[in-house]
Each structure stands twice: as structure tokens, then as C-alpha cells.
Amino acid sequence: MSDQKPEAADLGGLKDRIVEAYPEKVGKNRAKHILVKDGNGGNKIDANAKTIPGIITTRGCAFAGCKGVVLGPIKDVVNLVHGPVGCSYYSWLTRRNFAKADDNGKNFLQYCVTTDMQEGDIVFGGEKRLMQALREVKEALDPEAIVISATCPVGLIGDDISTVAKEAEAELGIKVFSANCEGYKGVSQSVGHHIACNALMENVVGTEEPEDATPFDINIFGEYNIGGDLWNIRPLLERIGYRILSTYTGDASIHDIAKAPRAKLNVLMCHRSINYATQMFWEKYALPWLKVNYIGVAETARSLREMAEFFDDQTLTENTEKVIAAEMERITPALERYQERLDGKRIMLFVGGSRSHHFQHLSEELGMNVVMAGYEFAHRDDYEGRQVLADMKETAISRVVPDLHYERESGCEPPADLEQKKDELGGHLLDYEGMIAHMKKGALIVDDLNHFETEAIIRELQPDVFCSGIKDKYVVEKMGVPSRQLHSYDYSGPYTGFDGALIFAKDIDMAVSTPTIKYMKPPWRKKESGSDA
Amino acid sequence: MANSHASTTNPCKMCRPLGACLAFSGVENSMVLLHGSQGCSTYMRRYISGHYNEPVDIASSSLSEQGAIYGGEANLKQGIRNVVAKYSPSVLCVATTCLTETIGDNVKMIIDDLLEEEPGLRDVKIIPVSTPSYSGSHTDGFYDSCVAILDRFARGGEDNGAVNLFPGFLSPADIRYLREVMDDCQVESMILPDCSGTLDAGIGDTFYRIPRGGTRFEDIERAGSSSCSIEFNLAGDANQSSARLLDDRFGVRGYRLPLPIGIRNSDLLFNTLSEVTAGPTPQKYQDERSRLLDAMVDAHKYLFGQRAVIYGDAEFVIAMTSFLVDAGIFPVVCASGGGNARYVAEIETITGSLDTPPAILREADFDDIYDHTLAAGADLLIGNSKGNHIARRINVPLVRVGYPIHDRIGAQRILHTGYRGAMNLLDILTNTIIARKQDDLGYGYSYM
After folding, report:
1. By the 8 A CB rule, do A221 and A289 touch?
2. What structural domains and CATH numbers belong to chain B?
3. Sign of the alpha-carbon torsion through B410, B416, B419, B423
4. What are the b/e assignments for A506-528, b being 16+ CB within 10 Å?
5. Rounded distance, CA A135 to CA A458, Å?
């Protein structure tokens, strides 16, 4: 019954109805976070603003962004969480980052290690316990490094974790560093990404040299190997002729991260979480970054071609075309079958900080219509593009973490034809156009969507599938709308690359075609005219 | 024995505020607001949703640095206003976190102040619960919450003949079963908390923002005039006993029983109900018990002498241990991330007749459990999903019971309690043992 579903023109009205349902002050605030593309008032959206208390946001905290997202996936380090037991426990493998140990056999992703602070530590300080815990971790697990992440009480009681880290490093003879990612910092997990990038930059990056170099050494930034996403990409790149020096941070070794500056190009998946690091790499090592997207068939091909264009090497270019042609031939029949089945389906995307953009290409490629998209914790540049960075005002919140700046290291020069390459690479080299540019006129964009708004939007837009995370997926399903999790993929994935596109298509097909849906209306209820079952 | 390390490796407990969220999820039309940074509510929503496969809305006062420095009063007040405006809960629990406990926010005073400012909010029962994450564990938060709500709202009065049932932390299927038992015994009962509808809801015509079900507030108010209380809480501290509170304050007679897991503990429950109602155990449950015995006779050929490691919440471990002993399984390690001296003593009593008593661990992490499991040798692990790591390392099957279970579906439907729950567990355990034996055989002989 998709013909009865509201058209784009109704969306302005929907926005008004949502805003009016709030107390006036809250409504005014939320109005700035809800946008109808190309409607009145331009395509400007408020983002990375304070969360309204009591609103049931899906956002997390600085600790979640730092330890949970960026530092957590590094496989050969132990993440020691300094704080009460909960934060460590709740971030224990929950993001489905996969990793396989390197030759040294070290993979500590299965471990959850915490100081489990007790009342006495809060009163008298927890530094002694932390130091002893570091010794125990070294003794029991012998990791390549230990990173200490702080939770809320640490900053409040004034435990000096960076000094403890220094002392432990001297005593234990392995790298020990710390991240002051107390949960109350900033407005969401976003600030934690920044803290983690700074910690890696200050303590790890550039501390080791690779044994050798190839002309096609790259790093993959902002790819966390959720559900094995990286493992779909890595073989493609290797077939073409790239060597992946490091990832940042899916399936990463701390040693690879240390050697990363010697790569020739950083390719960037998740702009939101890791653009701090790519910018610092650019400043310090003149190592440019290219915004890629390996979600979607055309986008994967586009990303591979732009990488080849950057290197401008005949063999690499030929290999790129060969790989794309072979992959396309292999997947096209299956892709076409899914395109027929999914044609015209209406999809909503609400994910963290970059995926709502990444998955739009793939959704459209499968014939679906993206009626709403939004980010949990993105900043304005993720929506509107990096050109807005200049006029994004520094607020008290954004000053919580300093932007680190570096002098360019001697001997590091950008490619001579950088400006020309920037022109050729469609705004993806050292630049990102943001999600809104991609969206269709009349599409709805919502920042920091909350539970109440999810419900209102679902009622009015009646999407065929809602892609989000575990906190909203059950709400959506209780409302009779199928869902897919785009954070951890409902135990499915990987969704990257050519094969990943088919897996995503299969999963969406499963969501919209499951026979269960037709039993939603019980037999004892009379069929009502005009309502969707 | 208790953990002597400074570090905890793979914890076997969660933090205290989570328990408040779990307890209040079983109170009708209620919500929880965690006073702290918003990561707490997001993490806990995730951890509760993942187990029950249900939406779980937990509000947050979303404190930022400013709140951490100057106090969270403004955020808490705004948070309460917003959550009431959008959700209209009848009961709102305000639970603290390590952040607001450390800065020392006086939550009760802030709430009183807010009610002065906005008398309209007095229609909502706002209940502060202190849950510092750096002390105790989720089970403490759970019991404290039940006590807090009774402390504040239970009233005394003439004996109305009803029975209060304080089941502790059980699955929705367990609570549903216990409700059936009470109804079949023709006892008017109040079960607090009752998550049978709220954390195991169906899909109906209407979506409710706060799921239907849960203990009715009127029933909580009447708890002080019930004839008696039955509480499944053997090892908890006295000040965490709901039954004790009602006994001390209103003279409501309290029965403290173990969780009714296994035949022995279920007998205790039905004997108590028989005493309370002055009537026989309904035929239906007599029949259930006889079928359970029949099942135990069938199963003992496969189960007797199997060596099991059991871990989880203290109360749960005590009850599961007695079930295992009755089924002829040897508990070799009994471990909890919490636990106290009474927990140890209870397990010592239950396992006293065994030739080799189990290692009894309290305040243990999975590192300790692993060491003791290796030392003892085990055929079976019994507990929540977090033992998966050990199960894989030593290649023994893990039977998932308790909380949290996030790597299988159906945790909300696991029936642990009563004769029926014992049959359910017995079949799962037996078939797990048989399946492993068949898988290990290699020549595919499958007729028993």
C-alpha cells in the first residue's frame, strides 16, 4: 500500500507536529535538529549540541567513544578500565569488532579488565590500585601495551592516570598510556573519539618504523571490522596491489598504528570518529586522506578508482578495473534479483556518525527510497560538509578536548600535484561533502533522534524498514515495522565491498519479506479498510 | 574465597544502578531516570534490551562537565520534567550513579525542591534510590529498589488475607509461573517486581511507550496489610529484605526461602503456600512434581556424577547448586561476582553430603572461575553468556541460564522455577550432556 504513504510534501507538517508536542523550550531546541532537505531556511542543521536531559537519547558517553569505539578494537593491547565495574562490563565485546591474532598470538578483545573501583578508592584515591592492576595485567596477559581509560569518578577524585601510566611504563617495560575519557565530558561519545585520537597520536603514532616500504602503502582509517567489514575490503585492496600498513583501529596491532605515518595515503571510512587523526597525520606527516566508502557496489568501485587515480600508476589502475569488472560480473545476477524485490521500499537510516550516509548509496542502489536519515552524534560537517568547519563556533562543549596541532616533520612533503589531485578526486581528497548533499529534495534529516520522535516518524512515514541500533530496534518492531541493526548488524554482515552489498540486500529482503509480518493482525479482528496490516 | 587481585579480569557482576533499572521495570507504568552521565543509561538499556529482546527506556539527566563540577540539580530537574511530560509515568525511580554519588548530589532534596516548584509533579511517585556503582553489584541495586519503594509507600492496616511475594531477580517466564501458582493456590497475591509483561511483551494492536504490566501501585501500597510475605532471598543482608521491612514495620509475617529452583526448593515453596493457605497443594502441582520425579529418574543415567561449574548472582547460585545436587550432578565450582559469608554457608550446607565439596568463590571474576575450573575438571558450565569464553577455551558445553544472555535468543522465556522449571532445566542439561557425548563419539551412534 505504498501509494497511500505520505509524500515528501507532508514532512514539513510532520516536523511541526513533533516540535509542537514538546514543551516550548524543548520544541524550539529540537526544531533546529530537524530538517527537510531543500525546504525553507536552507540545509543547515544543529548538531553536536547538548543532549536534553530526560529525553531518552540513544547517545552514549565519552568513555563509550574512546574505549568502546576507537581504542577497544586494538587487538594486542589490554584496555584497562579505571573505574567501577559497569563501564568496562558494558563495553565488553558489545560492538562486534572482530580480530585475529598476529603471529605473536596476542588478541585480548575477549578480555574485560577493570580496577573495579570500590568506595575506599573513591575516598582515598585509586592510583595505588591502578598501579597494582597494571602489574597484574603485565604479569598475567603480557600484552604489547596497556591503555588506561578513565570513567566518571576518576576525574572527580583527581587520580592522575597519566603519571601512573608513565611510572608503569618505566617499571614494566611496555608501553602504557592513558585516556581521560570520563563519561561526563562533552555531549556524546563523539568527544571520546577525539580523546582517543589524541592519545594515540601523542603516545603511539610514529614511535616505530616499518621494516620496509612499498609504493602503495596505505592505512585504512575509521574502519572497526564490525562483523568482519575490514576482512571484505582487505583482500580486494591486496589483489589490486596495495599494502595495508595499518588499520585504525579494526583488527589493528598497536605496532602497525605506530608505523602508520610511513604510508602514502590514508583512506577514511568513518569521518566522524577518526577525522581528528587523519587531520593530524596531514599536519605532521603531510600524509593526505581520501574519503572512501566501501558500503555499496558503486561506492566501493568509486572508492577503488579514486584511490588508483591518486596513485596514478598504470598497473594499479588496470588491476583496479580488473577487480571491479570481475566482482561486478560475479555479483550482478544476484544484485539484480534483490533490486527487483526491494524496488520502491522506503527505508529510514539512523546510525552513529557516518553510516547513515554510507548506507544511503547502497539502499538507493537496491532501488529503495531513503525517506529519513540522521546521526546520533555527528557534527555539522558530517551533515553539511567540511566547508562549514570555518564557521562552526567553538562552544564550551567543544573545548573539552583540545585540537592538537603539529609542526610538519622534516622530510615529509605532500605530493607535488596535490591541488590538481584534489580537483580530480571529486572533493574526496582532504575533503568531505557531508550527508545532506547526497540526499533527495524533501527527505527528512534528524539529528540526535530520540525515542518519542522515532515513534512519531514511524507512525507518519510508515517505512518498510528502519535501520538503527539495539536500543530502538525493539520499539520499531513492536510497532510492526521490520528493522535491521546497522551498529552490530544483528549478528550478520559484513556489509562492505561487493559481497557485503549482497549480504545487506539479503538481510533487508529478509526484513521486508518475512512471512511473520502477515500475521500481525489476528484473525479475530475485522479487516479495517485503508489501514496497513 | 574472595578475589585478592587489584584488577578484575572478566567480571561476573554488573554495577549497582543496573539492578534498580531491572527492579523498576517490574513496576506498573514506571520509568527510571539515572542521575549521571548519559552513557550509563545507554549502556544499561543496551544490556537489558539485549537479554530480553524488548525495548527498554531509561532516561538520563545527561550530566556534562558543568554538572560534574557544580552539581547536577538543574539537569535532574529538567530531566524529570521532560520524562514526565513525554512518558507520563506513574512511578519514576531516580537512581544515582558513581558520578552523582561522588559529587554528593542530594537527590532527595532536589526532588523535594522540584515538587515545591511544580506541585503538578506530585501526581508522579518519584522515588530516589541510592545506587553508587562503586559499591556492591547489580543485585544490591535490585534488592535496594524493592525495599525503597516499600519503605516509601507500603501502608499498614487490617489483615486483608493477601500474600506478598518478593521473587528477586528471575525471568519473565518464572514470574508468570509464580503468578499461576499463586492463582491456583487461590491466594490473592502481590508480586514485586513483576516483569512478566513488561520485559516479555507481545506485539499487539497498540504500541505502548511504557509496556503494560508490572506490579500495580495500589498493591504496593497495600503490602503492609497482607497476611504474610514470601521472599526468595536467603543470603541478602537484612536491610535488603523486603519481607523483613514489612515485618518490622507492620508485623507482616515473613518467610525467607531460597529461589524455588529444583525439587527441594520447590517443595519448600509449596509447603509454605500450604501452610499459608491452610490447604493442600493443588493437584496440578502434585502431578507436576510426580512428572518431575519421573523425569529425574530418566535423566539420572546421564547426569549422575557429571561435574558442573555454576556461576552468577549469589542467590541464583545457591538455588542452582541445590538443584544440581538433587539431580546427582556434582557442583565442583560455585562462584558469584557478589556473595557474602551467608552465601558461602548456604552452599556449604547444601553440598555438605558430597565426598568432595565444591570450591565456593565469592567476589570472583571469570579469571578466578577459570583457574578453579581447570583445577577441578568440569563437564559442564551453567550460567550466563559471560562464561562462553571459558567454555570455548576448555571445550565444555555451556548451558545458559540467569542473566545476561546476549548470545542466544529466548532468555526471557527460560523457566527456572518450580517443578515445571526443574523439568525444563533437567531436560536442557541432560540433552546437552547427551549431545556432547554423541558429538564426541565420531561414529554417529545415536539411539539411546
Report:
1. yes
2. 16-153 (3.40.50.1980), 163-277 (3.40.50.1980), 283-441 (3.40.50.1980)
3. positive
4. ebbbebbeeeeeeeebeeeeeee
5. 52
Q: What is the DSSP letter of A402?
A: P
Contact criterion met (CB < 8 Å) for A55 and B59: yes
> What is the rounded (10 degree) CA torsion for A295, A299, A302, A306?
-50
Active site residues of A: 61, 64, 95, 193
Distance CA A497, CA A271 (A): 18
**Residues 182-201 of chain B whose Cβ lies under 8 A from any Cβ of chain A:** 201
Strand order of the β-sheet with A34-36 is A34-36, A444-447, A369-375, A346-351, A465-468, A483-485
Alpha-carbon distance A229 to nearest alpha carbon in chain B (angstroms):
20
Beta bridge partners of B8: A114
Closest to A414 in 3D by CA, of A289, A259, A303: A289
Helix (H) or strand (E) holding B380: strand B380-383
Q: Do B43 and A22 touch (CB under 8 A)?
A: no
**In Å, how far is B206's CA from the nearest CA of chain A?**
8
Which of A317-324's residues contact partners 24+ apart within 8 Å by CB, and which partners? A319/A239, A319/A240, A319/A241, A320/A240, A323/A236, A323/A239, A323/A240
Contact B99 A153 (CB under 8 A): yes
Q: How far is CA B145 from CA A87, B92, B142, in A?
A: 21, 12, 5
- A198 CB within 8 Å of a chain B CB: no
How far is the C-alpha of A112 from the C-alpha of A110, rounded, in Å?
7
Cβ atoms of A277 and A260 within 8 Å: the answer is no
Cβ-defined contact of B99 to A184 (cutoff 8 Å): yes
Helices (H) and strands (E) in chain B, counts: 17, 14
C-alpha cell at A138: 603485565
ipTM of the complex: 0.97
Q: Are strands B307-311 and B330-335 parallel, antiparallel or unpaired?
A: parallel
Torsion angle defined by CA atoms of residues A198, A199, A201 and A204, in that order, rounded to the nearest 10 degrees: -170
Sequential DSSP letters for A498-530: HHHHHHHHHHHHHHHH-GGGGGSS-TTSPPPTT
Cα distances from A419 to residues A291, A310, A316, A333, B158, in angstroms, run 16, 11, 21, 40, 87
Q: d(Cα B297, Cα A379) in Å, to the nearest integer?
A: 64
CB spacing of A156 vs B55 below 8 angstroms: no
Q: Say if residues A473 and A80 touch (Cβ distance below 8 Å).
A: no
Domains and CATH numbers, chain A: 62-184 (3.40.50.1980)
A6 by Cβ neighbours in 10 Å (0-12 / 13-18 / 19+) ranks as middle
Question: What's the grid cell of residue B315?
Answer: 542467590
Q: Are B319 and B261 in contact (CB under 8 A)?
A: yes
Provide the residue-wise pLDDT of chain B in tens; the chain has 448 residues: 566 799 999 999 999 999 999 999 999 999 999 999 999 999 999 999 999 999 999 999 999 999 999 999 999 999 999 999 999 999 999 999 999 999 999 999 999 999 999 999 999 999 999 999 999 999 999 999 999 999 999 999 999 999 999 999 999 999 999 999 999 999 999 999 999 999 999 988 788 999 999 999 999 999 999 999 999 999 999 999 999 999 999 999 999 999 999 999 999 999 999 999 999 999 999 999 999 999 999 999 999 999 999 999 999 999 999 999 999 999 999 999 999 999 999 999 999 999 999 999 999 999 999 999 999 999 999 999 999 999 999 999 999 999 999 999 999 999 999 999 999 999 999 999 999 998 888 777 778 7
A331/chain B closest Cα distance in angstroms = 31
Q: For A45-59, what is each residue's pLDDT tens digit?
A: 999 999 999 999 999
- Asked whether the beta carbons of B115 and B121 are under 8 A apart, the reply is yes
- Report the C-alpha gap between B51 and B412 in whole angstroms: 7
Touching check for A57 and chain B: CB below 8 Å?
A: yes
